[in-house]
What does this fold into?
Amino acid sequence: MGTCDDMDLFLVRHGITDWNQEKRYLGHTDRSIIKSELTQLEMLQKELMEQRFDHAFTSDLRRCQETLAFLNIPVPISVDARLREVNFGDWEGKTYNELKDDKAYQNWLDNWEQGSIPNGESSDVFKNRIDSFFQGLFKQSLETAPHGKRQFLLITHGGVIRYLVSRFVPSMSFWDLSVSHGQGIRLTLQRQKEEWVCSSLSAVPFQEKEK
It folds into this structure.
């Protein structure tokens, strides 16, 4: 049985929606991307077409599936609800100005892992479902991959990408990273002593970022 020692994760944030343009919190609400803004994805599409992906995964929400459909990468695809954005509960559709005087909201901004979202998703639930997805991906890769590197494309959400980078890059916190819509991060992982660790972090497309 072969082993997978290296893995490239291309973590792409979905194209922009009307709520994103209006700077409204958008979690599990199922909004479509703005079709007139799809041309912003062309540079990303060109770069991704040059890669050879083993598999693509997408959040089940429309904005992610529509982004992946536009990119039209020739690769097997799986849809997985565990790649959803955090559920913002009572804050769905609200803006910063509408929430800034809410004490619970300020507590969440100060410490998102300890603060709570009214009728929303706790940080533990959010992190556990994402961790569950990656535990399955790592396990499957170790069982089925030939020796060497595998590449996966993930179309997901800003909060998911922030969490994953903070999880694998200890020097970065959740709020340190900002990824624009239709842009992404390439996270290169290596398996060392039964653990996956980040060996490289770069922007997709264009400029390389240091760890």
About this structure: The chain has one domain: 4-85+122-204. Residues 4-85+122-204 form a domain with the Rossmann fold fold (CATH 3.40.50.1240).
